[in-house]
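Task: sequence in, structure out. Protein: Cyclic pyranopterin monophosphate synthase.
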Amino acid sequence: MDPRTGLTHFDEEGQAIMVDVSGKQETSRTAIATGRIKVNQAVYDAIEQGTAKKGDVLGVARVAGIMAAKSTSSVIPLCHPLPIAKCSVDFTMLPEECAVEAQATVKVTGQTGVEMEALHAVSVALLTIYDMCKAIDKRMEIQYIHLDKKTGGKSGEFVR
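Result:
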């Protein structure tokens, strides 16, 4: 940890490091992240009715999100590879806002948390919706990606 900043991903000289978790006790850890994509009515209808040309938008986005959670350490340089015990990605259609909300829940028993895995899952799920619907409209907006809750570990529970 860099004593000047308190940041754990830097050493005393300010160099980036992977945090040493070898001395930490394994605990049950969970993270829940949420985000949404704002779309136009044509995109919303195509998703809801399953008529997008590329197929089942939410089904593909769910699988993409789960795959993203499992591969977070290969994309975020200082993340530890984790043996994820559970990952789910669920969607809520928001007709009043013409948006789709994605929520990822990731669980592990390990020495470090799964916040990044949950955030990565939501991000990739939403990007997948964008990719599958961009032929209809390219003005979609990915919004409000955030951590809702995390449990376990030294820092305990966090609820947004």
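The beta strands are 27-38, 86-94, 99-110, 141-151, 158-159.
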